């Protein structure tokens, strides 16, 4: 009993997340997989979402430009530039602030790859200083069809902005994405970093000189991504990121000169997302002020910070105008994809908590003084709700937990993979055969954050319920930083030190240390993948937490399974045990075709030897 108690104490000290109800490291890993499912273009050899294949291979051809690549924004097959750029900006901001935490979770490399998939596309989409392609595909014709991206027959026309057809919001957000990404690549790929920064300079100049709303030029986007806030917020947002990327005084002066006139110090915000950037600008400028960089612009920057404080206080329910919450505690802005506002707000409260801690400041709200830790606790409460701590006990991240959406509003996920069945799915036939199905999606859209519940915590898991079951890249992007931060613990630390992590060195690890990921091991229709998701040092010894995934690759349910686990020197969770044999957990009667289960164990050496002893197919 004494040894068991000691082991439990060690685990509590080393891995508090394992006992807090959620594995943030596992959620982080899953959330990154979603971006691979959204890839357009020629997929790389290391593509991990294997049910996807190449798509959009002629994008841009009719316009004489190569626009192959980038991301599909949500459950359709259109590439919308504005939300894609915001997605990349937020992924880059996550790496800038929490790169070391991403590295500790073994996900820094995957995060950087996800960013580069977007920036490589933006380089193609920006062939001239004053030309930017902002959309490929037509939302109207695309939504008329329900087809896999690999064989879509819809219109792939490319739409652009230029001096005669300006789009300051689109160009400004893309400039912000390129500038933020240039910081990410500064040490690991300096040549690429300088290229991104050059594009950012040009895009900002284009946006500032030729002013106008992008949806007045690309009118086809109005129905889907209308720029309600205009372009002033994107110009300020881009200037803030260019200052952070270049340390060029011009951009700091731009914020100081234009902060009042462009609304940066005037708008009291209760939302932040792909359209409205003011809260993000206010947070960044507040950081510059706390770092002592404001100079003669300090009075203006203090007004920026006052608005950032307003946003944070409204989220905590301690302001003069507070954000609505559901009975279960989730912030609520709108029924259609409300989760986008939850993840973006959670990111801002997370970084602002660390900014205040670093400057040894508190948050001043109309209801009183608030410690920075309360902001981080708020972010944690929202993430925990997403992961299942809610009245429905539903995880709104696909593939995380035991109860998550099974009928996602997503073309690729809902139609059998082209690798499994080559039968062509027609435009309208997809609706009749696949969209209308009542069964679960044939392809698991791992890591996707869906739109989420309504104002009363209600949720209907139906494919036609696009307001609640459709995912989006900009739902996931802000969550990367929050999950990385939460997985590292809840204590404050300085965010004002150089934050760009050292390059990811892709070389074999020493034999005495466990590898981050073991190769896929298969026994017939059963595949096993192991991965390190955390570590800590206690009394001079390093302990590793391993997440192991068992995948049923057959076309039939796996009725029974016996695993042999050798060289295991610690506790294990997620399997039933009988003597030296391990099987499906007691609550799981079978493992459906194409599905997987995960179990976790902790010990202080290389991965245990996990193998299949026997199995039975239904």
From TrEMBL:
Task: List the EC numbers from the record.
Answer: 3.2.1.4
Q: Identify the catalytic residues.
A: 409, 461, 470
- List localization entries: Secreted
Domain named Carbohydrate binding is located at 526-606
What Gene3D superfamilies does the record point to?
A: 1.50.10.10
Q: Does the keyword NADP apply?
A: no
Looking up InterPro entries in the UniProt record yields: 6-hairpin_glycosidase_sf, 6hp_glycosidase-like_sf, CBM_49, Glyco_hydro_9, Glyco_hydro_9_Asp/Glu_AS, Glyco_hydro_9_His_AS
Reaction(s) catalysed by this chain's protein: Endohydrolysis of (1->4)-beta-D-glucosidic linkages in cellulose, lichenin and cereal beta-D-glucans
Main subcellular localisation: secreted
What are the entry keywords?
Answer: Carbohydrate metabolism, Cell wall biogenesis/degradation, Cellulose degradation, Glycoprotein, Glycosidase, Hydrolase, Polysaccharide degradation, Secreted, Signal
Q: Where is the signal peptide?
A: 1-20
> Family assignment?
Belongs to the glycosyl hydrolase 9 (cellulase E) family.
Protein name in UniProt = Endoglucanase
Organism taxonomic ancestry: Eukaryota, Viridiplantae, Streptophyta, Embryophyta, Tracheophyta
Gene assigned in the entry? LOC104714805
